[in-house]
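Backbone-to-sequence.
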């Protein structure tokens, strides 16, 4: 197994104690490792047996790839037989190279399909460097992407504005608007939902709504705001709190509802393994194999789409307001299909 943070810190400490001909007793190595853990992590206690195991790992571990030339002098002092040796100079192992190749492939997909154009050159150079040390392998991780998705070209500009805390001027046109609007905007966070990207922040011309949610595919242009315009901070905006009680990205000023829904036997494994929300609980199982589940959320359009996406396999039991909304949408859908049949 790959080394964890504590063991890596111990390896580095032992390496430092033995470099350039320095010698140390086992007790001194234990003391140094304990001191390093306390100073760096604020906790940790190392036993003599742990340090002895570390020394064996540094000498012979294929995964670590150190093969450190640690010897014992006068049956008491540990040191490096090669005075110039250091684990910092150890070449990467095949295990390391395999993981690096996978990481580069993953970064390449993210940079090309997620709009982070500013890192493409870095990823390409990293890919060339890794490929020069190891054969080029096929990716083992594939991310879902939509190359026709609009708005990704603004990703880097939005990312930089968030990191640098700079306001921007957006030209934006939602689907229901006849004309575009241009306004000043302080972006806070980017979020992806169902392969569509959104930016959350504060519109400078909107005093009614604390947070604006803008879809990147509706952005028509971004320019830097003039120097006289200041970035608006919202210390109350906490993404972990904001997204805690919703599915998706849309949040209404409404109370959290206890939503109960019935799942048919065939779909129960899917709902169990991929919950609709982190609050999902299993309530009871009926004789026909169907299961009642519950979630505590603020109902929104994304939640309705999730339920409708299961078709006849999922039935919402409560609250009544959500039941009526879904019933109306399903009746409209039936009417649409009836109209097609009549023609």
């Amino acid at each position: 197994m790959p080394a964890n943070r504590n063991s890596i810190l111990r390896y580095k400490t032992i390496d430092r104690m033995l470099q350039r001909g320095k010698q140390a007793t086992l007790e001194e190595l234990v003391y140094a490792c304990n001191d390093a853990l306390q100073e760096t992590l604020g906790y940790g206690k190392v036993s003599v047996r742990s340090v002895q195991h570390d020394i064996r790992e540094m000498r012979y571990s294929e995964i670590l790839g150190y093969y450190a030339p640690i010897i014992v002098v006068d049956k008491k002092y540990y040191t490096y037989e090669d005075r110039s040796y250091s684990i910092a100079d150890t070449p990467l192992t095949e295990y390391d190279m395999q993981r690096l190749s996978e990481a580069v492939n993953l970064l390449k997909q993210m940079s090309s399909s997620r709009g982070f154009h500013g890192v493409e050159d870095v990823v390409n150079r990293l890919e060339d460097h890794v490929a020069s040390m190891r054969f080029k392998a096929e990716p083992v991780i594939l991310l879902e992407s939509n190359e026709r998705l609009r708005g990704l070209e603004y990703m880097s500009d939005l990312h930089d504005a968030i990191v640098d805390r700079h306001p921007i001027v957006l030209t934006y046109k939602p689907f229901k608007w006849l004309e575009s609007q241009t306004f000043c905007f302080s972006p806070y966070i980017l979020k992806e939902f169902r392969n569509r990207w959104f930016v959350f922040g504060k519109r400078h011309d909107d005093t009614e709504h604390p947070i604006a949610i803008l879809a990147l595919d509706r952005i028509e242009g971004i320019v830097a705001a003039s120097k006289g315009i200041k970035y608006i901070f919202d210390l109350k905006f906490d993404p972990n709190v904001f997204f805690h009680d919703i599915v998706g990205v849309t949040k209404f000023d409404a109370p959290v509802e206890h939503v109960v829904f019935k799942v048919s036997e065939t779909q129960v494994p899917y709902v169990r393994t991929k919950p609709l929300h982190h609050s999902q609980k299993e309530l009871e199982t009926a004789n026909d194999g169907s299961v009642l589940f519950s979630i505590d959320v603020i109902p929104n359009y994304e939640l309705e789409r999730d339920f409708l996406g299961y078709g006849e396999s999922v039935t919402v039991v409560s609250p009544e307001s959500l039941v009526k909304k879904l019933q109306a949408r399903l009746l409209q859908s039936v009417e649409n299909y009836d109209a097609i049949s009549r023609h």
